[in-house]
């Protein structure tokens, strides 16, 4: 069952933006395994209350958050990231899709619903994680925005995108990848731009991502790991729908084409 604002009318969706890590692919498990492999020689472990504060953050910010819990460990942020990258790079080419994502992406693509990916991963990591999953990611036809992409040329912005929970990555995806006039993150929006934001649906698993989607003025379907719900409170932003798995998603409740019976 979904925990959602089911009794309220949902907006009619015209375009869809996906987060990637932990939502489309089982990468959060890799992050946990690798981090605990690095911490093990020091007799330490990343618990879910620590991990929750890392999810959705830019990598250096997440690393600083993690290491702040272990001040006695002689690891700098740079050394931790070097070890982490080396171990993760061995695992990324084998990471698997999460339940429900193949069906949903294929369905939206088949019905010509505009779709994009907005991820906090660096571009080089995106390729490591997805080049073996072309069956899914080729359906996006290059409509991917990564944390380190230079968006200034196409958006008339002179600054880099801020990480989630800021709404930047979702607004950039909607504007530059899908051609939607949603305005800029810090600029005052026209009524038409606010309405255009309201036509977007975001799928997220992390709390900062869910917050970023709501701050972007879009609808959000939140699919958090059940462990996350034990350590974090979603407020003040709340999702428009909360699911235990993407397998529970019903497109027609959002004005999208219904799945065909198999």
What does this molecule look like?
It is a single chain. 37% of the residues are buried. Strands 1-7-6-5-2-3-4 form a 7-stranded mixed β-sheet, with helices on both faces. The chain has helices at 27-39, 48-54, 59-67, 77-91, 101-110, 123-130, 134-137, 152-155, 168-177, 191-197, 207-215; strands at 3-4, 15-18, 115-118, 144-145, 200-204, 219-222, 241-242. It is an alpha/beta fold. The longest helix is centred in the first third of the chain and has 15 residues, at 77-91. The protein is built from 11 helices and 7 strands. α2 runs antiparallel to α3 and α3 (59-67) crosses α4 (77-91). It folds into 2 domains: 3-26 and 95-254, Rossmann fold, CATH 3.40.50; 27-94, Putative phosphatase, domain 2 (DNA polymerase, domain 1). This is HAD-like protein. InterPro entries: HAD-like_sf, HAD_sf, PGP-like_dom2. It comes from Hohenbuehelia grisea.
The sequence of SSEs as H and E is EEHHHHHEHHEHHHEHEE
Under CATH, the homologous superfamily of the largest domain reads HAD superfamily/HAD-like
- The percentage of residues in β strands lies in 5-15%
End-to-end gap: 21 Å
Weakly predicted, low-confidence segments: 1-7, 153-158
CATH architecture of the largest domain: 3-Layer(aba) Sandwich
Q: Which percent bin holds the helix content?
A: 25-40%
What is the name of the CATH class of the largest domain?
Alpha Beta
> What is the CATH fold-level name of the largest domain?
Rossmann fold
| Overall SS class | alpha/beta
Q: What is the oligomer described by this structure?
A: single chain
């Amino acid at each position: 069952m979904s925990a959602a604002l089911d009794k309220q009318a949902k907006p009619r969706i015209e375009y869809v933006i996906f987060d990637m890590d932990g939502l489309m692919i089982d990468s959060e498990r890799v992050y946990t395994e690798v981090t605990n492999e690095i911490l093990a020689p020091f007799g330490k472990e990343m618990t879910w209350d620590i991990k929750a504060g890392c999810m959705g953050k830019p990598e250096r910010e997440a690393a600083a958050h993690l290491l702040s819990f272990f001040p006695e460990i002689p690891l700098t942020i740079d050394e931790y990231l070097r070890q982490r990258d080396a171990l993760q790079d061995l695992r990324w080419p084998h990471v698997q899709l999460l339940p429900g994502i193949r069906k949903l992406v294929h369905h939206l693509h088949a019905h010509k619903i505009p779709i994009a990916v907005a991820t906090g991963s660096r571009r080089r990591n995106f390729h490591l994680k997805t080049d073996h999953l072309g069956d899914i990611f080729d359906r996006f036809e290059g409509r991917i925005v990564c944390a380190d992409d230079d968006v200034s040329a196409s958006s008339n912005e002179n600054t880099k995108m801020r990480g989630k929970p800021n709404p930047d990555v979702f607004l950039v995806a909607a504007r530059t990848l899908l051609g939607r006039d949603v305005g800029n993150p810090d600029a005052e929006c026209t009524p038409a731009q606010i309405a255009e934001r309201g036509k977007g649906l975001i799928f997220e698993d992390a709390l900062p991502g869910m917050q970023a989607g709501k701050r972007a003025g879009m609808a959000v379907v939140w699919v958090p790991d059940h462990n996350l719900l034990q350590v974090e409170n979603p407020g003040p932003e709340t999702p428009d729908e909360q699911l235990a798995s993407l397998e529970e998603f019903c497109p027609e409740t959002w004005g999208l084409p219904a799945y065909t019976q198999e």
